[in-house]
């Protein structure tokens, strides 16, 4: 009996799902062939990755919302370096806390998984990679700025409850995965395209971007396969909470907490301009969600009352024509 025939016998393969199975197999094989260990593939103690407090490479470039603001540009070099180091460590800390949510939710989801479920293997590959990411990010934080604030308290309090959705409403949970992964992927790719930062930050971004592409792809594929299977009530509920999840978790990733803003000395009026009062920042917010608008449209959940919520959350707009469409072509 072939693997596919065995999967058919368990009810996991139905008409039209063969491509999904092929994708799962490809993702799993890629995770075996290309993966990273933060303590084997990063030479933390090399001279190249040495962290020095007076290193101008920590200065934020225009790809970063803080770095692009006139307030930051007018600061003395020493302060710009200090804020840059805090910013990168803060992004890493929030990223690893989000990865912890992902790991917990996927494990809650998989505890109900039946034998021969082809999703099990790839999902556990992903959890392994995310565990390595938490180690990598924490080591980076420890070396760059161990005093960063991390995610807001409300997020940390809610993590166990959000992770529980992996068991009882996995479609909402995987929506949450995209809500966190898409913005941080956008932030890191933008930084690298603009020339990067300190070599230590560049190295962890290279690793994270490479593996996160698989994780984002799986979340898209999972929702495309399973949302159409939902009953009418649950699908209607998902349509309503989809934009709310996107906006709330995007803010956790993109907007430094009040404590972090105070630590960096960002005035409140500057913070409001950067997140999300100015026309430029509002466009950035919309740009983050072109791919998920495409997904929502394909799933038929961005219409009616749900469409109004997208607008109220400030994340409505034209959907991408294809995944990873360049931002400049989106509007």
TrEMBL record:
Domain of life: Bacteria
Name of protein: Diiron oxygenase
Organism the protein comes from: Nocardioides luteus
Organism lineage string: Bacteria, Bacillati, Actinomycetota, Actinomycetes, Propionibacteriales
């Amino acid at each position: 009996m072939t693997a596919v025939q065995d999967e058919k016998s368990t009810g996991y393969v139905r008409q039209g799902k063969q491509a999904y199975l092929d994708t799962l197999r490809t993702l799993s094989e890629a995770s075996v062939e290309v993966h990273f260990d933060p303590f084997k593939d990063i030479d933390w103690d090399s001279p190249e990755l040495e962290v020095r407090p007076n290193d101008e490479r920590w200065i934020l470039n225009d790809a970063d919302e803080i770095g692009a603001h006139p307030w930051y540009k007018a600061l003395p070099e020493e302060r710009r370096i200090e804020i840059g180091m805090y910013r990168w460590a803060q992004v890493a800390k929030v990223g690893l806390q989000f990865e912890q949510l992902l790991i917990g939710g996927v494990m809650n989801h998989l505890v109900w998984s039946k034998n021969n479920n082809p999703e099990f293997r790839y999902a556990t590959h992903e959890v392994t990679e995310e565990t390595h990411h938490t180690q990598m990010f924490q080591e980076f934080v420890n070396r760059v700025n161990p005093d960063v604030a991390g995610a807001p308290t409300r997020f940390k309090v809610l993590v166990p409850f959000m992770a529980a959705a992996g068991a009882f409403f996995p479609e909402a949970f995987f929506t949450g995965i995209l809500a966190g992964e898409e913005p941080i992927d956008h932030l890191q790719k933008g930084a690298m395209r603009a020339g990067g930062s300190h070599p230590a930050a560049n190295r962890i971004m290279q690793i994270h971007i490479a593996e996160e592409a698989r994780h984002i792809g799986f979340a898209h594929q999972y929702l495309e396969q399973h949302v159409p299977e939902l009953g009418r009530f649950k699908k209607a509920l998902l349509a309503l909470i989809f934009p709310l999840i996107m906006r709330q978790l995007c803010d956790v990733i993109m907007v430094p907490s009040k404590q972090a803003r105070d630590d960096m000395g960002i005035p409140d009026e500057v913070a409001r301009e950067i997140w999300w009062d100015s026309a430029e920042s509002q466009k950035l917010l919309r740009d983050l969600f072109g791919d998920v608008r495409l997904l929502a449209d394909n799933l038929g959940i961005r219409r009616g009352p749900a469409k109004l919520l997208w607008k109220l959350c400030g994340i409505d707009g034209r959907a991408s024509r294809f995944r990873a469409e360049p931002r400049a072509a989106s509007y």
